[in-house]
Amino acid sequence: MATQDGFYLENDSGILHRGLKCAGVITPPQNVTDQQSTFDVIVVGAGYTGLTAGRDLCISGFKVLLLEARDRIGGRTYTVDVGGHLYEMGGTWVHWNQPHVYREMSRYRQASLSTSHIESGAGLNYHSTVLEGKAGKMDPETAHKLAEKAFRMLCDVDGKLGRRVIPYPHDPHYSPEAKQWETMSVAQRLEQIRADLTGEEVSLLKSSLSSICGADMDNAGFFDVLRWWALGGYSMDGVYETGDQFKIAAGQSSFARCFFDEALRTRNLTYAFKTTITSIQDLKNRVVVNGKWTAGRVICTVPLNVLHKVNFEPALSPNKTAVANINQGAKFHLEVSGPALRSWSGAAWPVKRQCHGAGDGLTPDGNTHLVFFGSNQDFSSPELDGRDFVADCKDLHEMDVKKTIWHNWSKDPFAEGAWCMFAPDSSFKHLEALQQRAGNVLFANSDWAVGWRGFIDGAIERGALAAYDVSFDLRASNIESKI
Fold it and tell me: What is the value of pTM for the model shown?
């Protein structure tokens, strides 16, 4: 089945395809009937947070209604099949050091991984650069050493590689010293270390950081970069191994189906896809969604940037809408002719549309799959976006592009942004408020995870916690009603 999401440009013919084959599409799109209106729990959103919460509650015996605006599961994560090759359109990478996701991978026997780093030494094994307008080329080891030195200096805020400031990565606010770094932007931290780095080192570092922050380092909070550093084991290699290397071989959509299918097998799951949520009313003794469905509790997993599109009664606390996900990063897949670029990588600064790219294996046609990251902020229309992005990629290295495949998360009406990055002075002020419930409505999303925020692991973290709290609530209510 094809989802309504995603774009595929045939570069030779110029034909643009909208909507791509995806294992996450749910058919029929709903099994709820007109006679069904009351449930124990309503879960809004079928990303990994909603899937985890819904599954856990169904297993516990609660009647759950899962509502989703898209035609598929996965939220900001889904896999498409183009020409027999799998492309991850959103959240992709997993690791055994991500505790929540790896537990689920083991549970569903989905621990078989693939990696983009097995081609080292094959083909054109070098790193291309366009730094401050000057094109260059260096061997990967040199590029790695330059970037590693700069990244380490950036994050060594305490002479102990950040271990004193964030000693417990899943409790990032633990140390009082963390606060001073939380108010700083990435650009401000770069200014502090600039004098100790060469221009080449600064540019390579900025390219790497742009792929993490979505290019806007003036508004990106340095603390979120420092958190990634700590979660990755306080090294650049660890950051990229845990967050940019290993994929589930069967694809994220196949993994997400495991959650959905298990919930469905309990016969406690009712669902409605292609259903946009417009209102959530907490009437104290029940919660009403879209004026139609009623439950004792609602778990809202709507992403941070589109939370304002839902009309809540009573209105949400201002703290829940005072912070945004500032990441407007772009992710593009290119299939380029031949196998030569499979171990190639490249970096650019300043960013126009792309900032970093690398080989990610071969397609069934024997061509190279390249993955590029950049910025969505200058994009205008799908017809132009693919061509413009490819033009920037060709500034790094000449390539014969056959296919361009992408999803514009910035213009996605149900996301309006990519993986979550906070602006400075947001985490200490707003994270706890984002996590707090409002009466019978609980809020859960990877955008406010305490560990791997913005990752699949963070989504599962929040979904499991919300399900636990709701289960405790409803069982306690049942006990009280029988006394």
Answer: 0.96
pLDDT of amino acid 479 = 61
- 8 Å CB contact between 52 and 469: no
CB 213 within 8 A of CB 205: no
Q: How far is CA 317 from the centre of its chain?
A: 25
Whole-number Å distance between alpha carbons of 265 and 322: 40
249 is in an annotated binding site: no
- Give φ, ψ of 169 to 5 degrees: -60, -25
Pairing status of strand 79-82 against strand 85-88: antiparallel
- Ligand-binding annotation for 49, yes or no, is yes
- What is the rounded CA–CA span in Å between residue 180 and residue 177? 6
Sequence-ordered alpha helix ranges (H) in 370-455: 382-396, 427-435
CA dist list (Å): 118 to 79, 121, 435: 21, 9, 39
pLDDT tens digits, one per residue of 131-145: 999 999 999 999 999
φ, ψ for residue 289 (rounded to 5)? -110, 130
**Is 373 within any annotated ligand binding site?**
yes
pLDDT score for 483: 47
The CATH-assigned architecture of domain 2-7+16-77+252-325+419-481 is 3-Layer(bba) Sandwich (3.50)
Q: Is 142 annotated as a binding residue?
A: no
H or E segment and range at residue 186? helix 186-193
List pLDDT tens digits, range 427-466.
Answer: 999 999 999 999 999 999 999 999 999 999 999 999 999 9
What kind of architecture, by CATH, is found in domain 139-240?
Alpha-Beta Complex (3.90)
Structure tokens at 393: 């990629």
